[in-house]
Amino acid sequence: MSFAAYQPLLDFFLLSLGFAYSQQVVLRAGVFSIATPAFAALGGYCSAILVQRYGAPAIPSVLLALVIGGVAGFLISIPLARLRGVFQAIATLALVQIVVSLAYYLEPLTGGATGIHNIPKLVNTWHLLAVVAVVIWFMYVLSRSGVGRAFDVLRQDEMVGATLGVSIARYHALAFIISGALGGLFGGLQSLYVFTIEPEMFGFAFLTAVLTYIILGGPRSVLGPIVGTAVMVALPEISRPLAEHRQFVQGAILMAMIVFLPHGLVDGLEVAWRQRQARRLDKEDREKRRAHAVAGP
Amino acid sequence: MLAIRDLRAAYDGIEALRGVSLEVQAGAMVALVGANGAGKSTLLNCLSGIVPAAAGSVVFEGEDITRVSAHKIARRGLLHVPEGRQILVDLSVEENLRLGALAARQRARRETMDTVLALFPILKDKLRQQAGALSGGQQQMLAIGRALMGEPRMLLLDEPSLGLAPLVTDQVFAALRTLNAGGLTILLVEQNARRAFLSTSWAYLLDQGTIAKDGPSAALAQDAEVIARYLGHLAAGEG
User: Mutation test of the interface with chain B: which of A151, A163, A221, choosing the one with the most B Cβ atoms within 10 A?
Assistant: First the structure.
């Protein structure tokens, strides 16, 4: 089969990967936000309305989608600063509900339940590849920087973070802003790629899919979302039954991962590899000492 | 360098500090000794901003930090090595150390990592390993090393000997004396009173949330009441 047959799959993978990073960045900072669908919807409607209704060019529309997502992320971080864990999840889920409801009710602007159709297709595979490349590079630089380290410490222990000089509120807000900007950006790109936008696209299925990418791949490494998203996008294509029972397969994978590999595939393997490395070095150490003892001083 | 006046704090509704006053001179190594539940950890948590003070004041280098938030206190160079080490077990030793540099911000220096690794050579061999794979003593060294990465002007240590073998405790305390000799001010919380008296110049005894006694460590180690309460019969025999 030629590459062309797989091209829609690749495009779907690239868009999903953007949402996956939007989800990952908050989890990495220890924020249990599931607001990515809300950011994606905001960005998606932004670029769809600008391009389809007002004939705006693609680049400023998508950039505005990014900015709107980032601003939404910042705004939601303020009331949520004192919430943690499951309460963050519930509050961000409420944000998703609010945004989706607005999409239904603001019919003159959003087209209500039927959504907006015939959006010009201004985004192709190369555009997506380029944007994803920049995002991966950005996430890589971020993870190597002090910001990535601050996120890591906040995820593992906030109090330790504070004693190390990390401002909890500021870094949580930063994680929300990046998550919002990425969600908005890829929401905006998606509208200009799939011709159509409607509220239902940002429902529960989208939310669980994005979460699965990260739980499968891992919340920390840059490679994690790539692996997680690739597996989840490819699975239904591998065999027909997998596609028919997509939700079931997704649920089963989620449960298996949480029980057996809670750090995700990539992060989990990294941890296992380090532990092996440590054991090996320890063994070498002991052998060296024993050899030294036998030889005598 | 650090002056505490009539500090009061409550933990879960229980008044853990009932008017503590103490002072640490620049360059000194001071011990804070007390039984379990005397309020030692609460005092350190209060100094580093994790537990809010109910009343009283904490002045660090001439500035009132009583209401300053924890991360800002750390950035001013008052660094807290919490009890139980609290290293991040999922990260590598090197990543843990680099985390410490976050508190230093513009004061961060490149050579600090080398200084820390020279002080704790064992960490140098284990830089790429997972911090959780280290022994208890190595984890304590890592926790101290991480705080040093933040270019502290003063170090607050909570029970550095907790759960360590005597030989390893010796190593940790030797490192602390080296740091103090290099000019670092240290406030040390210890349950192991004998060890604390041996390594410090001045000591405070904390009892039920207030300072019961203070004086030169060597004098306190000879004090009959202190011997009875904190050092036990063995120490009296050795004295």
Answer: A163
The domains of chain A, with CATH numbers, are 3-262 (1.10.3470)
Q: How far is CA B238 from CA B173, B194, B222, B231, in A?
A: 20, 11, 10, 10
Q: Is residue B133 included in any domain, yes or no? A: no
User: For position B214, which CATH number holds?
Assistant: 3.40.50.300
Question: Over chain B, what is the mean pLDDT?
Answer: 88
How many structural domains are present in chain B? 1
Query: What pLDDT shows up at residue A279?
Result: 76
> Is pLDDT of A18 > 90?
yes
The residue with greater pLDDT, A257 or A50, is A50
Q: Is B112 within a domain? A: no
The pLDDT score that the predictor gives to residue B232 is 66
Please determine, for residue A292, whether its predicted confidence score (pLDDT) is greater than 80. no
pTM for this one?
0.85
CA A183/CA A33 separation, integer angstroms:
12
Residue B220's Cβ-side half-sphere holds a number of Cα atoms within 13 Å equal to: 29
Rounded alpha-carbon distances, angstroms, from residue A218 to A168, A232, A261, A274: 22, 13, 9, 16
Give, as one character, the DSSP assignment of residue A197: B
Interface of B with A in 100-159 (CB under 8 A): 100-105, 125-126, 128-130, 133, 146, 150
Which pair of structure tokens corresponds to residue A54? 């007002």
In a domain, B58, yes or no: yes
Cβ–Cβ < 8 Å for A20, A228:
yes
The C-alpha R_g of chain A, in whole angstroms, comes to: 22
pLDDT greater than 90 at residue A284: no
* ipTM at complex level: 0.80
Would you say how long chain B is, in residues?
239
pLDDT of residue A278: 72
B113, B64 contact by CB (below 8 A): no
> B207: domain range?
2-89+155-238
pLDDT value of position B97: 92
> Out of B80, B82, B99, whose CB is closest to A149?
B99
